[in-house]
Design brief:
InterPro entries: SRAP, SRAP-like. Pfam families: SRAP. It is an enzyme of class 3 (hydrolase). Keywords: Covalent protein-DNA linkage, DNA damage, DNA-binding, Hydrolase, Lyase, Protease. GO terms for molecular function: lyase activity; peptidase activity; single-stranded DNA binding. The protein contains three helices and 16 strands. It is mainly beta and about 230 residues long. The protein has one domain: hypothetical protein yedk fold (Alpha-Beta Complex). The chain has a six-stranded antiparallel β-sheet, with no helix packed on it.
Length: about 230
């Protein structure tokens, strides 16, 4: 998965937020057509009895500056599925106690050959929105006391239906099942074997794929493709 999201807060995504049973909006949901890695995104997480919407930097590892935080030199906007159970990896502890979700309209993919982009695609939910499985971390600045959230999207191997678009990886898209979402967001839920089936490439929803000219302008240059759910 490449580092861009479509976080347009349209009626479909609003309904998705409602179904997520959010009872505390700390930060207004980000409403942007093009969000790139290290930008601010909206995450949903559980804190005590509250299910919150909060802003987070889309880059899990941060470095502290004199008065703020900046993205670490280690690329961490995505966390690979095969690192989740590797001690000392960036996502190991977060997978166990700091899981979140990122509700989006869609995401972008870029295919590279010899480090050169050969095409760009935008993917979006055929209807409503998508729930991407994420991890988050909380940081407190030692000088200012500021609290900052950061996050990453968990990525899986490429799905067979998507390999012509991106041959290496895809985001983990969670089924919109309330019981599963409750477990995912519960920081006390530690029966990780119940998430094992999620670590295989799967499309719980149908997607619409558009080839575009480039990420910043996102003009369609081909007819849309419907990619059916599994």
């Amino acid at each position: 998965m490449c580092g861009r999201l479509n976080t347009t807060f349209d009626s479909g995504v609003k309904k998705l937020y409602t179904r997520l049973k959010i009872n505390k909006v700390i930060d207004r949901p980000i409403d942007r057509r093009f969000v790139k890695a290290a930008d601010t995104v909206s995450i949903v997480r559980n804190v005590g009895e509250q299910r919150r919407v909060e802003s987070a930097m889309w880059w899990l590892l941060l470095d502290q500056t004199d008065n703020d935080f900046r993205p670490s030199r280690f690329t961490s906007f995505n966390t690979r599925f095969d690192k989740l159970n590797t001690p000392q990896s960036a996502g190991y502890q977060a997978y166990r106690s700091s899981r979140c979700i990122i509700a989006v309209k869609g995401f972008g993919e870029t295919e590279f050959v010899d480090k050169k982009p050969i095409h760009y695609f935008d993917m979006q939910a055929e209807s409503g929105g998508l729930i991407l499985a994420g991890l988050y971390r909380t940081w407190q600045h030692k000088n200012t006391g500021e609290i900052k959230l950061s996050c990453s999207v968990i990525t899986l191997p490429a799905h067979e239906k998507l390999k012509h678009i991106h041959s290496k990886a895809m985001p983990m898209i969670l089924p919109q099942n309330s019981s599963l979402v409750d477990k995912w967001l519960d920081p006390q839920f530690d029966e990780l074997d119940q998430f094992e089936h999620l670590l295989q490439p799967r499309l719980p929803q149908s997607l619409i794929a558009h080839q575009i000219d480039r990420p910043m302008t996102y003009q369609s240059i081909s007819s849309p493709q419907t990619i059916p759910y599994d």
